[in-house]
Amino acid sequence: MVSEPDEAGGGPGETPAQRSFLYEEVYRQIVRLIERQEFLKGAKLPTEMELAERFGVSRPIVRRALDLLREADYVTTRKGSGTVVIRGPAQTGPQFQPLATIADLQQFYEFRVGLEGQTAFTAAARRSEQDLEALAAAIGRTEAVLEQGERRLATDLNFDFHRAVALASGNRFSVATLQALPNFVGDVPLKQVFVSVGNESYAWQAHAEHKAIFEAIRNRDGQLARSLMVDHITAAMRFVFERTKV
Q1: What is the C-alpha R_g of the chain?
Q2: Rounded Cα distance, 31 and 18, in Å
Q3: Contact 92/168 with Cβ under 8 angstroms?
């Protein structure tokens, strides 16, 4: 987590460009959570301190992201109520209940292995140059926050890559299903069961796995893309379950 602000409004050593990059990423993350209905219309957002802890950034970064959300009419500030969501989800689709038990998590990963393995296979056959640009951009954003030591923000950013793979597949059902899946990083009942999954070496490992999947899709190697995606999700499941509280 970056340090508390200096006189310039960010952590010591942060440049204005770094602060801008981080608050724009936090803004995008919260928009995604609103659109996925994790923050429902009419609901109060977590406090600045809670959001800063969740995303692993300083409160000034969160404060600027909230300013952007107000400017875009996603939220408003109400006296006595804090920051309230005033815009509903941008789209509708399948809805899943939050992950509440270990069994839920096991089934969550099992489902993703099948869904995303096939999605990666299809993406390798159908991807366009625009799809490759979107995949590369998602990888670049994750690498930028990892280089700044913001691994918790990078964890949420992982979704951007997986969504870009689904979009590259050209299958709207895959996209809708992926976007509706519960967000394990989010505020779900299951989070009390696990120790922190913030781990710098694993974050870089997952990032390297994304890059390998990207290369397979770029080379139109569907079998390799599927195999790498299956291995990637299986490794994530193993990483989480190895850190399960007993």
Answers
A1: 18
A2: 20
A3: no
| Total length of the chain | 246
Query: Confidence band (pLDDT; 50, 70, 90) for 16?
Result: very low
- What the chain holds in terms of domains, given with CATH numbers, is 16-85 (1.10.10.10), 102-242 (1.20.120.530)
pLDDT at position 140 over 90 = yes
Helix (H, G, I), strand (E, B) or coil at 82: strand
Q: How many CB atoms neighbour CB 23 within 10 A?
A: 22
- Which tokens sit at 239? 């990483």
Q: Tell me if 122 sits within 8 A of 171, measured CB to CB.
A: yes
Position 229, amino acid: M
Is residue 156 classed exposed, middle or buried when 0-12, 13-18 and 19+ CB atoms within 10 A define those classes?
buried
Residue-wise pLDDT for 35-44, tens only, equals 777 788 888 9
Is the separation of the CB atoms in 225 and 117 below 8 Å? Answer: no
- Using CA atoms of 227, 232, 237, 238 in order, give the dihedral in degrees to the nearest 10: 90
Q: Give 35-83 pLDDT, tens digit per residue.
A: 777 788 888 998 999 888 888 788 999 999 999 999 999 999 988 778 9
Question: Which pLDDT score is estimated for 64?
Answer: 93
Q: What secondary structure letter does DSSP report for 187?
A: S
pTM of the model: 0.73
